[in-house]
Amino acid sequence: MGFGLPVRGTGTLDQMLTRIQHSLSAKLIALFICAGAILLLLVGSIMGRGFSQHFRSGIEPFMIHYIELMQQQLGSPPSPENARRLTANTIVDIHVFGPHSKWTTADNYLDTASLVSQGQAGSNINANAKYQLHRIGHKLFLETHDGDYQIYFQINNTDALKPGTEYSLIVLGLIIAILILIYLVTRSIFRPIEDIEKGVKLFGEGNLLHKIPKRRNDQLGELTNSVNQMAEDISQMLEAKRQFLLGISHELRSPLARCKVNLALLEESSARSDINHDIEAMDSLIGELLESERLNSPHRVIQPEEIRVDRLITELIESEFSDQNINLKLESITSSVDPARVRLLLRNLIQNALKYNTGNHDKAPLVRLKKNSRYFTLSVQDFGQGIAREHIPFLTEPFYRADPSRRRLTGGYGLGLYLCSMIMRAHSGHIKVTSEVGKGTRIICRFPRS
Is 110 inside any structural domain? Predict the structure, then answer.
């Protein structure tokens, strides 16, 4: 995981889309929206089909009968005076096209070219009376003939015969309310999954004492209990390992102390020097084990002080690495850290950089200190052989060596970066390793600002 802040724009949009794709809630919402849309289409189709059938079987015969009665009273040939009297205060208008004249009770003459045929309709009184149905928008036209006269009965506002808008809105509102209720219930059912996801992330960060809340006594509740029990078992195993390492380390201190005393009584020789070197290496190993396990304990305690971090770095290099060529790029930073632990961290990182910078005499290891408003970073970079990508995720694990065959040449037992990671965790910070084969390795430690 990188240390950079999220970049606004495409990166943020991609992250949002990724979260939506992996979100169970988002998938449920999409499912409910699709189901709602299908349900609305289905209900609308059923209502439309039902109205059409109802119109054909229930309304159309009475309408045809009414039009037939109007036609009888219209006279033959059709009389404009009778037409105006019959259509007054009704939703019906009459258009007549004769051999020598045309007239209408409507405001405008009918444009017969724009009529859309809807089939035929018969009279329920006179089986021989047939009407050709046409439609323009929401207006219905019934076409018939009386000798040389072509007559159109225009029925306005046929939408008034359909189910009311209020009824449709009520049905739509009920459907939406049901979908919202289903979503809320489903969200409640799957709520423990969110708790488990958060708990597993905390376990992965090392907080094995966290307990995932159990909300229900169903299968998800049983899964919650199982995950909590798993974390507790892992915590107990790690604690047993820690106690074992601490016990062994303490027990080894006594024979090592006796070895040092006995070695001091021997005369100077190359054998004595080699033995002393091995004893010092073992003593350093035991010290690193004890310190890392102290920092890894649930009650780890650091002793922060408000100090100038750049001065601490300079003083350490002048006192312990004065004979080494090390480049410094330090910003002035004052922060609250544990000086002893930061010295130990920096000492390990610089020793590693000096060991693996071999073969590149043109570039010395680089120690860099930078800051921003939220945190400051301490990085140590070498320009040696680098580390293969597949080893990088495991470098902060105890006793891990990317190349075990080089142990005899470079020394160490794979505890340095593990101890550094424990120091960073104690400071609520993070450590990151970047490396490229043939170009070197960079260790970045990010501390939160005071």
Answer: yes
Our count of domains for the chain comes to: 2
Q: Alpha-carbon distance 214 to 212, whole Å?
A: 6
Give, for 442, the enclosing helix (H) or strand (E). strand 440-448
> For the residues of 43-71, what is the DSSP string, one character each?
HHHHHHHHHHHHIIIIIHHHHHHHHHHHH
pLDDT in tens, 357-405: 876 567 899 999 999 888 999 999 999 888 888 888 888 887 777 665 4
Cα–Cα distance for residue pair 148/97, rounded to 1 Å: 9
pLDDT tens-digit profile of 335-360? 999 888 898 899 889 988 998 887 65
CA distance 315 to 201: 39
* Position 316 in a domain: yes
Identify whether the C-beta of residue 177 lies closer than 8 Å to the C-beta of residue 39: no
Alpha-helical (H) ranges within 128-211 are 165-204
**Look-up of token digits 């961290």:** 345
- Out of 161, 177, 195, pick the residue that ends a domain: 161
Q: Which of 122, 138, 161 is the last residue of a domain?
A: 161
The range of the structural domain enclosing residue 130 comes to 46-161
Residue 203 lies in a domain: no
In this structure, is residue 322 part of a structural domain? yes
